[in-house]
Specification:
76 residues, mainly alpha, 2 domains, extended
């Protein structure tokens, strides 16, 4: 793999071309990564358990804004 600090060919691209390049790279990683791992049966069971708990009591869900606020409290 080439050193990103010395490989600056991408800088010759326009901003929109670089954004497209990043999107293409991300899509290729996502396509490969989906085959790169599998959940264990215990993980699948836990996901099903959590989803069933949510369906039984949707009001127990916490909004993302609340989670994010708690995670990043005290950070600038």
């Amino acid at each position: 793999m080439s050193d990103p600090a010395t490989n600056t060919e991408y800088l010759k691209l326009s901003v929109s071309e670089r954004i497209q390049l990043v999107e293409d790279i991300w899509d290729s990683i996502a396509a490969e990564a989906s085959d790169a791992f599998e959940l264990s049966q215990a993980q699948v069971d836990e996901l099903h358990r959590r989803f069933a708990a949510h369906r039984a009591d949707p009001s127990s869900a916490v909004r993302w804004e609340q989670v994010r606020s708690k995670l990043f409290q005290g950070r600038p």
